[in-house]
Amino acid sequence: MSMRLPKQAGEWISRDKTVRFTFEGQEYSGYEGDTITSALWAAGVKVLGRSFKYHRARGVLSFANHDVNVMVTDGNDTNIRGDVVALGNGMQLDAVNTDGGVLKDKNKYIDSLSPLLPVGFYYKAFHKPARLFPFWEKIIRKAAGLGVVNFNYPRITKRKLNKHCDLLVIGAGPSGLSAALAAASEGLEVVLVDENQSLGGSLTYDYAGSESSRKILEELQAKVAETANIHVYTGAYAAGYYADHMVPVVTAKGITRVRAKAVIVATGVFEQPPVFHNNDLPGVMLGSAAQRLINRYAVKPFNKGVVVTANAHGYRVALDLLNAGAKVAALVDMRAEGQRDDLVGELVRKGVKIYPASCVYEAVATSDKLGVQGAVIFPFDEATGQANPGKSVNIDCDGIAMSAGWAPAAALLYQAGTGMGYSNDIQQFVPNCLPAGVFAAGRVNGVYCLQQRANDGMRAAAEVLRYLGKRPPEVTVDKHQGPSPSHPYPFVEHPKGKNFVDFDEDIQIKDFVNAAKEGFDNIELMKRFTTVGMGPSQGKHSNMNAIRILAKIRNLPVEKIGTTTARPFFHPTPFGHLGGRSFHSHRLTSIHAWHESAGAFFVDVGAWSRPAYYQQAGKSKQQLVQEEAQAVRQTAGIIDSGTLGKIEVCGPDAALFLERFYTGKFADQKVGTTRYALLLDEAGVVVDDGIASRLADELFYLTISTSNAAAVYREMQRWLQIWQLNVGLVNVTGAYGLINVAGPAARDIVGKLVSIDLSDAAFPMGAACETEVLGVPVRLVRVGFVAHLAYEIHMPSAHGLNFWLALMEAGAGYGIRPFGTDAQRLLRLELGHHLAGYDTDGLTNPYEIGAESALAMDKPFFIGQRSLKIIGKKKVAKLLVPFVLPQEYSGEMPQDCNLVIDGAAIKGRVTSVAYSPAAKRIIGLAYVDPARNQPGMVFDIRTDNGSIVKATVVETPFFNAD
Amino acid sequence: MKLLECPMNGVRPLSEFLFGGEYREMPDPDGSDDYEWAGYVHYRDNAPGVKKEWWYHGPSGTWFIAERNTLTDEVLKTYLFGKDPSGKDQTGSKPNKNQTTGTEQSI
User: Fold this and answer.
1) Does domain A273-404 have CATH number 3.90.1150.10?
2) C-beta of residue A297 within 8 angstroms of C-beta of residue A11
3) CATH class of B3-79
4) How far apart are CA A148 and CA A142, in angstroms?
5) Among B18, B29, B54, whose Cβ lies nearest the Cβ of A865?
6) pLDDT digit string (tens) for A885-911?
């Protein structure tokens, strides 16, 4: 039977555009502008879903996504909120969480078992034995689930935009609209956000029957439309409040991060259900839901209904129902005093019987339990909250509208750090201490009278202007007058229970009583034990009622119970909205493309991508690394080290700066030479080491390990600021490329390209100079990190590939071979060099790695020096030593981080270990007991499989260089 | 996301900044005993309240001092080291010989 009403002013549907869809296999049609729920309800479909736990039939409750009675699946997408999601042509919808369809759900038997399933039942019953839990879990998950997740869901990422404004107004009801207009008229750039498709908030359903309020709304909408500095986002929810007024605004298309100078929260209130037996039957709905159906979508909620209320709103709902052609069989007012204004007379004139000081004791279900057939009305003692069964009245009806009160939509206010207090005048939490730049207006601020709500918006706008340094006129708002819009305790006990507080999680009054009996009588504990407010609607329709029940149980005033904070996001937000683009940035050297074409296997080193080794078909990584290393030992290898940190330290105080920054001496360093540079932190822990080349009196050129480069440069900048030395720091890491040619043939190869004398006498180990290669100015450094003979050529990075090709060509006759970081690690290990950050950790001091010679303790100051004076007095706990395994060793290969043990005691660990083709045995570095550090001494390494390997301390290098 | 004011570049989002730890006045390394020095290096009282902190603006490479209330996460002011506009800041104004301007110092 169609429930669609004739065309009416203000409706949100386009009747000339029919939309066809299916629900549970049946074909239906609605209009463009309908939501899924409104189209189904208009078609006379009342069972729209099954509840989470007991599989009870459910229809419309809030019709505003404040409950999840209507959650449907459509192809790829699941858990679609039928209340607010627009109907689309060709949708094939099914209710989630049913076994065999929403009408004949096979799991509905669980409802009859509900007395056996008290709150906490699943926690307790299936907790032990643990081995059986997976079995139970499978059954429970199947029965008590939401939509089925599609694991083949396509990856759809949504755009993220940024928007800056002076003022963000959240909520476009009467107060939000007034606030936006008032602020915009003073020249502020305003962003106005509302979750509905159309502006107006409650004016689009409550009061919508009245000609005069419709006119007010149309005027407000027109003014906003013609105000250029109000930027409107409809169909968009403010998802959370983040520091310094950043609010993500979510639409179907993606997220806009709005950064405002001030925020007005005019989010209104959520209607809260009064609680009585069977208050969840399809046909029992909130008064505001009935109004939304009627005034936005022209849908009659039911044919003959009962209105149960505790405020003036319920009377307006009854009038709207009458206007929509529904019969109102009774208006039940829970208040002892009832309503005292012309609304009463109006209803009485229209023949509505009013029952003051009464309650709906229960909704009577139809025989199939899929709808309402009547209401039982009892006298209600407001003071004690007790229904009096003496004089009951039974009324036939097919629907019940409920209006007993409201809870503030204050999630964003809480997140911003607002202090909320309970107002007894309106029985509601209201903000009483707002953070700077955050303002509240309208019903969320406790202002209910329609005229005053508009006033409150202007008052908030004036406060924003004052906050931003302007001088607007004062706006006053009248204090709330008359009866409270919310009932302090709208609960009716019933021996059969089924009086629902949280519709998401099927939680009844008795569940709270039981939880309190078990000791969970604090709001945070009660929330977690009963799961109230933990369902998909996050307590929007249930938290306030839970607080009221707990206050009654504990016999405390409501404000003593406190509230829980609803965290972002305000509504569940798809992952596609949140997910990023998996963008991971790499720095590449100018030779990268060559490495790729040569089959390099890349690894991340700091911010850089570097070849670990060069792959060849049919050869293992291990084999290739050994070959690359052997090439360096036998003829020559070439490695792209352009990733190393390179910093120029220049100026009159350059040497002084380095003397303070590093442990060694640099003042007496001769131009054209290099020195080892060891960096400690203030605790005397080894941070990094590198090479300092003095290129001129006032110019040092530092190389720093790839992964530490950024951090070391930052520390240089900080200490320079503290010391205020006359020094310039230039980070030339990206500006210079670096190629290292190493091996016995290195001198011949490099000599082909450079004109200077490379002989040991003219250019010995540690020499550095500026010269010209291939017509380009370069820096040439003789180094010994991976081989006894090696040259670093530092060239402007754009020339890197040219140099690489030229060196490869020059070395072709010598069998030059490119090598990667894996071979580099092996080569430096063969020479006995430690790697800072690899062979050291966050506690290693220089004495433990035998770096005393790098410490110029006689200098006036260097970073870490004072701490070393303390550390130096103590006994060294462990020492890094080179070790070898017997040449014939064929057992378990020790790994980095294997422990060095002595009986049961841990003495240290292996930091580097590898098979050395040059030494023809397994070699490594390990921390050992200082008493075992002499060459020839033996210590034990425990390998991954538990076997003990005897290692012998040796001297470095590990091999005989010829 | 929080905003922070870099003294050189103005208000920028927090993602451009790096926290550099609490600012501590270095005692004279030669004039302090081991206990005092170890306290400087290792001890943080972590009590909530207004702290001077090092912050680094990454894109421009600017270190600066932020006075931040660690209880409310409110940044009271930011300035370059030693350049507190109120003049009350002691950073760099009470130098020991390793924190002072170094050109006159022999090495």
Assistant:
1) no
2) yes
3) alpha beta
4) 9
5) B29
6) 999 999 999 999 999 999 999 999 999
